[in-house]
Amino acid sequence: MNKTITKDIHYVGVNDHKVDLFEGQYKVPNGMSYNSYLIIDDKVAVMDTVDKNFLNEWIDNIKSILKDRPVDYLIVQHMEPDHSANIINFLKHYPNATIISNKKAFKMMEQFFHVEIKNKLEVENMDSINLGHHALTFVFAPMVHWPEVMFTYDSEEKLLFSADAFGKFGALDVEDDWDDEARRYYIGIVGKYGQQVQNVLKKASSLDIKIICPLHGPVLTDLIPHALEKYNIWSSYEKEKDGIAIFYTSVYGNTAKAVRGLVAKLRLKGYDNVIVKDLARTDMSKNVELAFTYGKIVLATTTYNAGIFPFMDEFINHLTERNFQNKKIAIIENGSWSPVAAQIIKEKLSKCKNLTFIEPIVKILSSIDKDNIVQLDRVANELIKKDLQPGEVEDKSKLHHYVCTVCGYTYEGEYLPEDFVCPLCRRPASEFEQID
Ligand code: FEO
Question: Given the CA of residue 189, which atom of ligand 1 is nearest to it?
Fold first, then answer.
């Protein structure tokens, strides 16, 4: 697939619709693109190679534009094999080309290929080369996504070759939403490295950028301000969307019933911005993406083999290894004997920064009982409570007090839920009186 990006810069990448799991784990129903670019100036440079299965198509793309003209440079920005697999094959077609990259990348080339590369130029951070009109500056971007990653800035075109950054899942011959698949890609692949992305965003803010050419997904122009804003949110682990995301596992339906009960209570209270995901039956990478997107999370699961149910265990592992933080979390646990799920969830999340756990934890013993219904109501109230800003005082003027006429227990809330049951004497809501 060839496409002209500017007068001198051409797309020579490929679309992959055969990949089953990208990076061995991510479902990509719309395929994947491996982007490569050609810069034609007094000197000719190719930016990165493509996945090993696409050598011929890629070389054909280059030759269809260059004809017999040789390539002077292959610039390697990232050594992950979806971009680097064809470096040695490229040299068979262009034996006089010089490979340009950095020390860490050349070390990885030795490790991957066990071949000595004769023509190579090792660059340092912020070094530049001149192709003629085009001056290319190499901006190191360690851990976005591997340690050797570098971006390349073309000051002639005000164009940033951004390696994996600003990429997305999906081939270029399929139209889909940039945000959704760029977010799932970012959280899944780069999510752990928010600080490094923040560092590189700071570096990029000093550059005048009109075009971004990533190694996956579309070339960005008009979308650049939007993409930068999203990257800033994602890499700072801030909430992107209002709402509540509920993730659950359920073996015999009892935990699922509690989740439905919580959703019903939220709706009764006028709050329906809720998404619910069964972790056993929905895409894990999408669920991980959603957990990072929302600020309020509910985790509902069963105790299992003295631990927690496997899909929830895996889910939380994905969150913690990506620096999950800045969330309000409610827990619903279920167990017929020795329930420990809530305790283990808290332990697993203990190293995450700025998590607030909602009280009470809903503790189900096999199936929900009246106490659980009250607990779910209290959790619903906490979930929909407006987050106070620093220095802000809670507005208590909307709160009322309802007293149980039998035992004197007092309930505080905006209203008394119809299905409320006194936790002390088990009397229904009809036996409560509002006292203010
Ligand atoms: Fe697209 Fe980190 O490789």
Answer: 2
